Amino acid sequence: MLDNVKLPRTNIHKLLATTLAATTQPTFNPLISLSTARSQARLESLRLERTSAGLPSHVLYDVLLLLRARAVPTLLTPDFTEAEQLCGALAHLRIVDYAVSDDSDTGVFYPDVHVIRSFFQYNKRPVVLGPMSELALALRLVPEGSDDTEVKKALVDFSILAGCDYSGKIPGVGPMTAIKLIMQFGSIERILDAKPEMRVKVQGDDTWDPDAARAVFNNEHLDTDELLDLVNEAAELADLPLTAVDHRVPDALSNSSFWSLQAAAGRAPSEVEVLDAMGIRAFDPEVYVQNLMALEPQV
């Protein structure tokens, strides 16, 4: 989804800092340096445009046709709905067994779902992540015995602090710091009350909007009835013959060994066997925490 895309400016900042630092050198030529900075900034801008731009509509349409032609039910997200949110909802409603996504937000929408990560990365083995409710207990974000509402609130505020797509974040706060803050204070409001220096950091930041992020995570914009209608429509389209979906799908492609694999109807007879055959390993909370600690900058 590209609705709220925030382009990273880190590299541009580094570029400008490097250019300014050059002014202290005896051989500094302002005209040459300015020209170089402009050229590099333009290249960086083009790179950001390429990496943040979505696929052309005709590519998405062709992919949609191929999936539907091979009897794979396919949904398009409704307005104001995130793709990973829709995946989580389908798993939550038990319409599908798993959600496949590398977006860490997926399991926060519905903490009871299983999310498969790294599924499309050739250099990594896929891993089943979740449910996030179990991860919250493993990370001690909430005390044992906490109800589902308390778990969801803690996960949402943790995600906002650690960095999500729906709000800015507090500078200098990474995943491990976010865990410690939620463990100690329980909510973003209590954190800001106890640490005025953090409140100062987000003052004037138009992207900092935890309430808006909470509304998204709490599925306030998702209409369950509309979702079920989409599911029924997708199921009907999946039952149509190839020629009824679109005649443009090449025979060579539709008859290939890859596309001849039909989507299995219903739940797999043995999920463990299926996951093992796909090379997907179970999630280990301790390894996850160790990886977070390795990513956290040491102060």
UniProtKB/TrEMBL annotation:
Q: What is this protein called?
A: XPG-I domain-containing protein
Q: Enumerate the spans annotated as XPG-I domain.
A: 81-165
Q: Does the keyword Disulfide bond apply?
A: no
Q: Quote the SMART domains the UniProt record gives.
A: HhH2
Q: Does the keyword Hydrolase apply?
A: yes
Query: What organism is listed for this UniProt entry?
Result: Catenaria anguillulae PL171
State the Gene Ontology BP annotations.
DNA repair
Please report a single Pfam family linked to this protein: XPG_I
UniProt entry keywords in alphabetical sequence? Endonuclease, Hydrolase, Magnesium, Metal-binding, Nuclease
Source superkingdom: Eukaryota
Q: Which GO terms describe its molecular function?
A: 5'-flap endonuclease activity; DNA binding; metal ion binding
